[in-house]
């Protein structure tokens, strides 16, 4: 009796409800922190050179087989679910343990991931000789080195083979780099030149210059020169290719088959089982660096994300250049010049609300207005020769930046206005009393004091722009851009080009990739990078805002 | 610095010297320039923002414009006795098939003959003329001896000088120049219908002695020489015992259905898929007594028939499948904007629209799916005219019996969209009932686009609903605790942490929802529900246990840190529920809950509303939390202190004083959160199956407006109806969020005023 009445009185104090509210905070906190930790752990562990296990696996009624691979996941599943995939457990056993093994060698095994059931595993070992080979195609390869060949002849086998292999790999990678520069820079320039000549010809035709006259001949000459240069380069290139294709290695897979891999197909090799902790860290940072600075391979599921980082940064920079002056001018107008009344109040509400308009709406607007309307008009006027293939009339970097500038301009306006209203009246009045004009007061005293607020606005705008994907899908982002927006061909900055973006990269690889299992770690890593950028930017904005408040508290007192 | 000021003073000129004056003037100019410059810049930025709304509107508005007609030319020709007309794609060449056995191609602009073909028939013996579906350009003459000749138009287009188009018309004979015997008894053919498509040609005819005869001819080309062929014929006769006089007769383009009507107003619907044994599916009285059927035409695609009546009404009929898989004709919709007998109907070739001419010479433009009458105008002076639409439906040519030709340009870009087709249930062809469907494109060209925004809006609302179900309690309760009960030190950590969540890119949340959460939820469905149930229970139990702890322990942790104490509880409950999930599943749901749900009739998708609700709820929490927290924290302190001083417990103060005062702020927080949930794109795009279904089942997906735009916009053809409808969807989103946000903002400003007056 007393027990129940004490519970009743406890409920009457309202304490349980307070605790329940506290629980809501705890749940939210666990969710936020858990989410960030999840991304961080999964993203960062992707680069760790995990040990590769070799094990004997025997399914009942099947001959035993040897498997080599990385342990990716482990889970407990109810028997009913396993039965669906055709595995029969002994009667009475309701749960089973199983392990996800990344066995690699997709070109030989078909699948590079495999669920294996724990009871049928025996004899797990970690031999030091197992190599993890990162290839340009078909994902990772796991196996033992048998020998190294040069044009089919064995040049090294046994203990020294690995050493020899590493030296030759370095050479082939160096050759690969040379080929890349040749193809991208030199041949790219020639192609650009040829395209220019074609356009020039088209322009001549449009100006009704008769065929066969001097300008045409000059163009023909230039074209000939370019073609000659191309021929020499072509030869040089084929020599390089021949040199690169010189070496091969023989490797033994888990099932005992020996296969040949040309060195030209190999990016990187390591033997994780033999590594000490410091070597592993070295390998780890090597992977991180490759991820941040490398080009994507295999439909973006392997390799690096440099073009996506570059595209994001370019877009954000162009957007900042556009959004800062306009946002600040609009804020100064609203706060300092416009007559404060119902109209300005209405405008302020409208601007505030625009920050809440769905980003996809801005994307639709950007596509219709910027790309098709303005871009189409620009093409009509300035790029007549290139039509019907569009220059600015198709989605591109400039339009993406403009769209995001419109999307983020309310953020800058609101932040700047807030900064302006925090500046004590006394400062403004003091300046005016000393005879300064309004413009001078603004320029010399008010704006410098409001600079941190503008900075806050800009940082928040950048953080929002960096994470926005939906509008970009319409106005310029692609999954694989053939070229960066900046290169060595005049005018060096190509605002009409499409670009890659971190957020879209996550969407594309995580959502539309054919081999999601293989792509997953990379998506986590990309997501972690994006979260990191955005959290750091936001913390910076919060920091600046807090410091700003302190400063004004000091001036007011 | 100081030195400089002194320096300046030494050079400062006298106030009324010319230098000083000039300098003042210069400064004033600068001030003015700044004023107008900033004013101009500010206003143009604001205008640019307003432009979004107006641009969306500008793209959307043409959808709702009616049609307009513009007469290009009127001229007199010698042509009389024209039975059928056609107009080519570029509105420049027309064909007239005449009752004297000739087919004349002429220039549509001036009537000049381009080619006059004498068809290989005896002109005297022609008793009937027929035209197949407009897309095929097929015609036939029925003869007095019961035979028929089928022929079709063909255009060869060349560009001899580069850009100049040259059109060479000609006549072809799909079955050769020999006549086909349609009536084995050799009676004159009074009425004829023909279709020829894909090597198969079918005739249906009414003979002079009122029999309906059918004839189907399949052309089999020889392998070696395609121009050589053999004909395989099949025939049948439909006896019309007791029927009145047949007035109209139509075959569909696939040659599977035959419709005819009699002068008593009955429609006969025959299945002639197997030509040799035609089957009467239905005979139905289509018009009230006193009204007769004056024209009969297939809508493009060959599924619906349009029935023009003597009272000016036009009915659309098509067969509808009932539960037992039997087809029955239904009068699906009617148009009654014309008042005189409909004498002729011209159908569009690519859309489900048509033109109707009545006996007073009035022309009506209609669209069936949208149930729209776009225009009714007296355009043709005479009712005794033949007319034809061009394939792009932007040109109309007509020829009156006395030889007056008229070429009309039609501006009718978007007849297929109306309020009805966007928001209400529409009875689409081949569907068994009116439905809301979004299906914007398909491979076939005579497809009926289904632009119903209702399932998409429903999807958006469904997503927002489940997201709010997760977010509102968590965010508001969390805000109450953070603003009012939490220790300031913890608050300074908690608030920014939760607020930073708002900046998390939603693409990351979407990706986690798909690749991480959705499989977990599917595998541990019972666990998810256990968490929902166990968490509040365990929190209360923990609180109770806390009161039972020795005082010494309790005092080690001051008030306001309850949330920190509960963190391990939340984690443990989560882990325990998840690990118990499999056992519960085995115990209650035969080891597989999704399968179990499917078995009891609840569809389960891996990408479902539960996942979206959880993840989008997570995305909305910070928005609601932050604004609610501000509103509660801003409640003037003297109110709460007063309440406490009068003996109320903190919780009573909270519910009776603080929440009441802050309720407008909480309302506006929920509105803004809702706005965010409505407009969110990436999460709904990734974490749902994007199937436009209308079902509130939490275990199924949906297709939201925003996701739909993201998926279809890049593929939509510029300025097509589809493109504009997507803009309309964007406008709807814009308006919805704008209204929600404005309401929230107005409420918030009022609240601010209230606080400052308290």
What does this structure look like?
The complex is a heterodimer of chains A (about 550) and B (about 750). With about 550 residues, chain A is of the alpha+beta class. Chain A has helices at about 1-10, 15-45, 80-85, 105-110, 160-205, 215-245, 275-295, 305-335, 340-355, 360-380, 395-420, 425-435, 440-465, 470-475, 500-510, 515-555; strands at about 55, 65-80, 95-100, 115, 120-125, 130-135, 140-150, 155, 245-250, 260, 265-270, 295, 300-305. Chain A folds into 3 domains: about 55-130; about 145-275; about 305-520, Orthogonal Bundle (MetI-like fold), CATH 1.10.3720.10. Helices cover about 60% and strands about 15% of the residues of chain A. Chain B is an alpha+beta fold. In chain B, a hairpin with a 6-residue loop joins strand 19 (about 295-300) and strand 20. The interface between A and B is large, with 105 and 115 residues.
Brief descriptors of the model:
heterodimer, A: 557 residues, alpha+beta, MetI-like fold, 3 domains, six-stranded antiparallel beta sheet, 13 strands, 60% helix, B: 758 residues, Methylamine Dehydrogenase, Chain H, five-stranded antiparallel beta sheet, four-stranded antiparallel beta sheet, 40% helix, elongated, disordered N terminus
